[in-house]
Amino acid sequence: MTEDLSPAERYAAARVRAAEEATELAPFRGMYDFELDPFQIEACQALEAGKGVLVAAPTGSGKTIVGEFAVHLALQQGRKCFYTTPIKALSNQKYADLVKRYGAEKVGLLTGDNSVNAGAPVVVMTTEVLRNMLYAGSQALLGLGYVVMDEVHYLSDRFRGAVWEEVIIHLPQSVTLVSLSATVSNAEEFGDWLDTVRGDTEVIVSEHRPVPLWQHVLAGRRMYDLFEESTDHGGRGGSRREVNPDLLRMARQENQNTYNPRDRRRGRMVREADRERERRSRSRVWTPSRAEVIARLDAEGLLPAITFIFSRAGCEAAVQQCLYAGLRLNPEDARQTVRDIVEERTASIPREDLHVLGYYEWLEGLERGIAAHHAGMLPTFKEVVEELFVRGLVKAVFATETLALGINMPARSVVLEKLVKWNGEQHADITPGEYTQLTGRAGRRGIDVEGHAVVLWQRAMDPGALAGLAGTRTYPLRSSFRPSYNMAVNLVQQFGRHRSRELLETSFAQFQADKSVVGIAKQVQKNEEGIAGYREGMTCHLGDFEEYARLRRDLKDRETELAKQGAAQRRVAAADSLERLKPGDVIHVPTGKFAGLALVLDPGLPAGRANGYRGFEMHDGPRPLVLTAERQVKRLASIDFPVPVEPLDRMRIPKSFNARSPQSRRDLASALRTKAGHIVPERHRKQRAAAADDREIARLRTELRAHPCHGCDEREDHARWAERYHRLQRDTRQLERRIEGRTNTIARTFDRIYALLTELDYLRGDKATEHGKRLARLYGELDLLASECLRAGVWEGLNPAELAACVSALVFEARQADDAVTPKVPSGKAKDALGEMIHIWGRLDALEEDFKINQTEGVGQREPDLGFAWAAYQWASGRGLDDVLRDAEMPAGDFVRWCKQVIDVLGQIAAAAPGEGSTVTKNARKAIDAVRRGVVAYSSVG
């Protein structure tokens, strides 16, 4: 091609090549055996020009290349680079990658568990470690030139997201920031904020997938393309996105063949398995079993695959189903390789623990090329699964969605069983952002020509809605930043109150709130124009119609108020009747999901907390624990009793009754039906309405009839305009309050926290007291509670195991609240200390209410959870893993994770505890050693 150029053009091209070769990017590009993508080159050039960069690109597109270029620049310039990641697994993986490239002497690792070569010029760390360094003014920050924040979209995380913003705000201005994010729809907005707080920042957005993604629906024996091949190349190519007409036709036919799940056979509900068999017998379309899906993918050359199942138990069950089906995805030589790798990686695990951990069943699955991957697994087991999958020795992984946010584990195919998941409160449809994140794993760069996303057919599925989910690129980054007690003390200690307030107002949360105010202000202006028009429309020639409309509203409001008072009185009467209930009372639950005959097991009064039942607050009123005639043990609420309840009869509850035993529940429910099944409860009689005798209502009605506008022929037309006028005026006032509420929201929250900390003598003016300096070293959700416990000497005199049990209450949160079972706690001093912790929390909770600090806004102290105290105590006391896991009823992975968090907080307490005369520091260190043993010690990832 150069022969076709003129001498001048050849000279200009040579000048460009020479200029490129003179940059640091040229030798860096030579370190890779593939050409860099345009977005990677653009980002690297911006970095070399001294700018910060925000790179938003799909999973697997290679955005970490930009982070590695920052490492390269730091080493060439003789400066430091910190590479931060959201989770320890990613830190470990990135550390291994950088050691391979630059050598162990130049790369360090800092996580909550590990400290390797911390003084190296390149250090990989979790984001929290860097945040703690910034607050402590660590010497390690000297000479820092670059910080790479991998997976920066984690700042949306409502539990940990604030840490990312803290780091971005507090990093010295001399540090160049490299932010790497998944594809987000408001990257420009995030870039604008970075530009404001960090200076010149280049935003580079790439939506190009290096490996094209084909989307499918697997129904019965047929795999349908989601999009028509000719128009969209599997969902990636063309501008028009037409849903496959064959898929639409099939969905229409199947969804018309409705099946009534309440069909009865021999007087009982048809079991789900029977219904599935019946569906298959009369239809060519069904939801394939997990084993069928893997066999189908294997036959079509679409393995390795990750199947996302939004349940840990579902992942384990899927592996067992594939094993029972006789699936073998590995040849004999690969099976031996797998066994060798597994035995090498698990050699440090004591043999007596292997059976407890389900090692042999896990190994059998691995040898066949099948595995689960979820947070409940032992970290060592997860690491082995990851390694074998990347090496092609595990070909089918069943995983929860946490894998999509974690380590680099791409596959040829991704399977989604369902498009609905439990979000902690309810079953909800997955969002377009979650769909993009999950399917982003499909297609391995440099290995696969194309990736495949397969959604399993489910009854009532709408292909159009699925296409909308697959085609939407809306994944907005929303700040979850909220000031905490620890943050407030650290800020005031470093910058004083006024400067701290200013710093918080530079957060992304406030930036987004301020931007949203502009649109609201425009709406207020528009509403005010509408109000003027409505005022004109309601003008009446007989008199002041605005005054007449006000009388009508006052009448309506008074009638509503009386109706509410009547309802409140009925609730009080119902609550009084509930307080009179005793264990053994037979009652009739009047309404709700559990309406019908029930036996009171515990009346659930506030004092009932002493009986061990938890899960309700004093202001909720009585919450009786009952056994229904259908054998269910449930804690009822006041909403289930709109009218007073009276005992129909009494029964003796056997001392041997166990609410967790199905047999025990069945026997007592049978006795309940026999004893009281024939009793018909009395119907509650309605009382005369209060409005009939109310003097205020009578007065308003008289004034209304005497008003001149009451006789207007167009009265109701005027009234409609008046109603619109009033509604728009009310809406406008709400918008004005929203503007007021969104302006300086973060700073106002900080002011309330500052006031509370001043009240408790943690802060005095612009200074932190001794108590404040202690709080500054305690990070975590219950930072203030931990500090108050140290201050009150609650943990003095506890032995290491007892201290571990108490500290567990600061970190543990049950996955699902179980209000019918009392958590077991150690006796003696530990029990007293845990009780005192609850008492201190109650005092802090009341204080937060006084200072208007609201937990629903992500600020404040939740109640300590005692659910892990017994397990932590047993483990720290030296009990065996088998005994501890059996008593805790908890997967090994969860147990290890909670133990790691207990160790982390014990370390903070050891550093923060008062020195002279205190036993806490010494026993906290002993407790760390007691907990860090066995499975906890040999699990390298937390």
3D architecture notes:
- The chain contains 35 helices and 26 strands.
- It has 942 residues and is of the alpha/beta class.
- The strands form 6 sheets. An 8-stranded mixed β-sheet has the order 4-3-5-2-6-7-1-8, with helices on both faces. It has a 7-stranded mixed β-sheet with strand order 10-9-19-16-13-15-14, with helices on both faces.
- Strand 25 and strand 26 form a beta hairpin.
- Helix 29 (800-811) packs parallel to helix 30 and helix 31 (869-876) packs antiparallel against helix 32 (881-888).
- The chain is globular.
- The relative contact order is 0.07.
> What proportion strand?
5-15%
The count of β-strands is: 26
Which descriptor suits the 3D outline? globular
Average per-residue pLDDT, rounded, comes to 81
Low-confidence stretches are 231-239, 259-270, 608-619
Question: Could you describe the largest sheet, including whether it forms a barrel?
Answer: 8 strands, mixed
> What is the percent of helical residues?
40-55%
Q: Roughly how many Å apart are the termini?
A: 56 Å
Across the major sheet, the strand order is: 4-3-5-2-6-7-1-8
Oligomer: single chain
Derived from helix and strand composition plus strand pairing, the structural class reads: alpha/beta
User: Radius of gyration in whole Å, from Cα?
Assistant: 33 Å
Total count of helical runs of at least 4 residues: 35
